[in-house]
Design goal:
Length: 165
Amino acid sequence: MQVFSRLAMGTAVLAVSAAGLAGCSSIKDHRGYLVDQALVDSVQPGIDNKLSVEKMLGRPTLVSPFGEPVWYYVSIDTKQPAFGRPRTSDEMVLKVRFDDAGNVRAIERSGVEKVVRIDPDGHKTETLGAHRGFFEDLFGNIGTVGAPGAGGPSGDNTGRGPNGS
Protein backbone atom coordinates (compact mmCIF):
# COMPACT_ATOMS: atom_id res chain seq x y z
CA MET A 1 0.00 0.00 0.00
CA GLN A 2 2.85 2.36 0.86
CA VAL A 3 4.58 1.57 -2.46
CA PHE A 4 1.38 2.45 -4.34
CA SER A 5 1.03 5.84 -2.61
CA ARG A 6 4.69 6.69 -3.36
CA LEU A 7 4.17 5.75 -7.00
CA ALA A 8 0.99 7.85 -7.17
CA MET A 9 2.76 10.79 -5.51
CA GLY A 10 5.69 10.52 -7.95
CA THR A 11 3.32 10.41 -10.91
CA ALA A 12 1.41 13.46 -9.62
CA VAL A 13 4.64 15.45 -9.13
CA LEU A 14 5.79 14.50 -12.63
CA ALA A 15 2.43 15.51 -14.17
CA VAL A 16 2.38 18.88 -12.38
CA SER A 17 5.99 19.55 -13.43
CA ALA A 18 5.24 18.71 -17.06
CA ALA A 19 2.18 20.97 -17.06
CA GLY A 20 4.19 23.80 -15.53
CA LEU A 21 6.98 23.48 -18.08
CA ALA A 22 4.48 23.40 -20.94
CA GLY A 23 3.36 26.89 -19.93
CA CYS A 24 6.92 28.18 -20.37
CA SER A 25 7.26 27.13 -24.01
CA SER A 26 7.33 29.74 -26.75
CA ILE A 27 4.49 30.21 -29.21
CA LYS A 28 5.32 30.18 -32.92
CA ASP A 29 2.91 31.79 -35.36
CA HIS A 30 2.79 32.22 -39.13
CA ARG A 31 0.80 34.93 -40.86
CA GLY A 32 0.31 35.71 -44.50
CA TYR A 33 1.43 33.91 -47.62
CA LEU A 34 2.73 30.34 -47.28
CA VAL A 35 5.88 30.36 -49.38
CA ASP A 36 6.40 27.51 -51.82
CA GLN A 37 9.88 28.23 -53.18
CA ALA A 38 9.37 26.06 -56.27
CA LEU A 39 6.30 28.08 -57.29
CA VAL A 40 8.02 31.40 -56.56
CA ASP A 41 11.01 30.36 -58.68
CA SER A 42 8.73 29.37 -61.57
CA VAL A 43 7.49 32.96 -62.08
CA GLN A 44 9.57 34.41 -64.94
CA PRO A 45 9.76 38.05 -66.05
CA GLY A 46 8.71 38.61 -69.65
CA ILE A 47 6.91 35.26 -69.84
CA ASP A 48 4.26 35.29 -67.12
CA ASN A 49 1.36 37.72 -66.77
CA LYS A 50 -1.10 38.64 -64.01
CA LEU A 51 -3.36 35.67 -64.71
CA SER A 52 -0.55 33.09 -64.67
CA VAL A 53 0.97 34.61 -61.51
CA GLU A 54 -2.41 34.47 -59.78
CA LYS A 55 -2.84 30.82 -60.82
CA MET A 56 0.64 29.90 -59.51
CA LEU A 57 0.89 32.01 -56.35
CA GLY A 58 -2.74 32.84 -55.57
CA ARG A 59 -4.19 36.26 -54.82
CA PRO A 60 -1.61 38.74 -53.52
CA THR A 61 -1.58 39.96 -49.94
CA LEU A 62 -1.50 43.59 -51.12
CA VAL A 63 -1.95 45.35 -54.46
CA SER A 64 -0.36 48.75 -54.98
CA PRO A 65 -3.15 51.30 -55.56
CA PHE A 66 -0.80 53.97 -56.96
CA GLY A 67 1.76 54.14 -59.74
CA GLU A 68 2.88 51.02 -61.55
CA PRO A 69 0.99 47.78 -60.88
CA VAL A 70 2.79 45.86 -58.11
CA TRP A 71 1.62 42.79 -56.22
CA TYR A 72 2.99 42.00 -52.76
CA TYR A 73 3.05 38.55 -51.16
CA VAL A 74 3.89 38.94 -47.45
CA SER A 75 4.89 36.13 -45.10
CA ILE A 76 5.73 36.70 -41.41
CA ASP A 77 6.83 34.20 -38.77
CA THR A 78 6.76 35.31 -35.14
CA LYS A 79 7.96 33.76 -31.92
CA GLN A 80 6.57 34.73 -28.51
CA PRO A 81 8.33 33.54 -25.36
CA ALA A 82 6.25 32.89 -22.26
CA PHE A 83 5.14 36.19 -20.72
CA GLY A 84 6.97 38.13 -23.47
CA ARG A 85 6.13 40.20 -26.52
CA PRO A 86 6.00 38.55 -29.95
CA ARG A 87 9.13 39.08 -32.06
CA THR A 88 9.49 38.69 -35.81
CA SER A 89 11.74 35.70 -36.42
CA ASP A 90 11.44 35.62 -40.21
CA GLU A 91 9.79 37.78 -42.84
CA MET A 92 9.61 37.53 -46.60
CA VAL A 93 8.10 40.06 -48.98
CA LEU A 94 7.81 39.02 -52.60
CA LYS A 95 7.22 42.01 -54.86
CA VAL A 96 5.99 41.24 -58.40
CA ARG A 97 6.09 44.25 -60.76
CA PHE A 98 4.02 44.32 -63.94
CA ASP A 99 4.26 46.48 -67.06
CA ASP A 100 1.29 48.33 -68.57
CA ALA A 101 0.32 45.25 -70.60
CA GLY A 102 0.09 43.11 -67.44
CA ASN A 103 3.26 41.07 -68.04
CA VAL A 104 5.74 40.40 -65.23
CA ARG A 105 8.52 42.99 -65.43
CA ALA A 106 10.53 42.13 -62.30
CA ILE A 107 10.47 40.04 -59.13
CA GLU A 108 12.12 41.27 -55.93
CA ARG A 109 12.49 39.53 -52.59
CA SER A 110 13.30 41.11 -49.27
CA GLY A 111 13.46 39.67 -45.81
CA VAL A 112 13.77 40.41 -42.14
CA GLU A 113 16.77 42.70 -42.78
CA LYS A 114 14.36 45.46 -43.85
CA VAL A 115 12.15 45.22 -40.75
CA VAL A 116 12.39 48.34 -38.61
CA ARG A 117 11.17 48.40 -35.03
CA ILE A 118 9.37 51.65 -34.25
CA ASP A 119 8.82 52.57 -30.63
CA PRO A 120 6.95 55.89 -30.42
CA ASP A 121 7.61 57.77 -27.21
CA GLY A 122 5.30 60.63 -26.23
CA HIS A 123 8.08 62.36 -24.33
CA LYS A 124 10.41 62.44 -27.34
CA THR A 125 8.13 62.40 -30.38
CA GLU A 126 7.24 65.94 -31.45
CA THR A 127 3.67 66.66 -32.48
CA LEU A 128 2.21 69.51 -34.46
CA GLY A 129 0.17 72.12 -32.65
CA ALA A 130 0.40 74.26 -29.55
CA HIS A 131 2.47 73.09 -26.61
CA ARG A 132 -0.02 73.31 -23.78
CA GLY A 133 0.16 72.07 -20.24
CA PHE A 134 -2.21 69.76 -18.39
CA PHE A 135 -4.43 72.52 -16.96
CA GLU A 136 -4.55 74.39 -20.29
CA ASP A 137 -5.85 71.24 -21.94
CA LEU A 138 -8.31 70.64 -19.11
CA PHE A 139 -9.73 74.17 -18.85
CA GLY A 140 -8.82 75.59 -22.28
CA ASN A 141 -12.34 75.45 -23.76
CA ILE A 142 -14.08 77.31 -20.93
CA GLY A 143 -15.62 80.46 -22.33
CA THR A 144 -15.02 79.60 -25.97
CA VAL A 145 -18.28 77.71 -26.54
CA GLY A 146 -20.58 79.98 -28.51
CA ALA A 147 -17.91 82.63 -29.08
CA PRO A 148 -17.76 84.16 -32.58
CA GLY A 149 -15.53 82.09 -34.84
CA ALA A 150 -15.61 79.11 -32.49
CA GLY A 151 -18.15 77.17 -34.54
CA GLY A 152 -20.92 77.43 -31.95
CA PRO A 153 -24.24 79.28 -32.24
CA SER A 154 -23.72 83.04 -32.09
CA GLY A 155 -24.78 86.28 -33.73
CA ASP A 156 -27.84 86.32 -35.99
CA ASN A 157 -29.93 83.23 -35.35
CA THR A 158 -32.60 83.68 -38.00
CA GLY A 159 -32.59 80.07 -39.03
CA ARG A 160 -31.26 80.79 -42.50
CA GLY A 161 -28.74 78.45 -44.03
CA PRO A 162 -25.35 79.41 -45.44
CA ASN A 163 -26.84 80.25 -48.84
CA GLY A 164 -29.44 82.60 -47.33
CA SER A 165 -32.43 80.29 -47.78
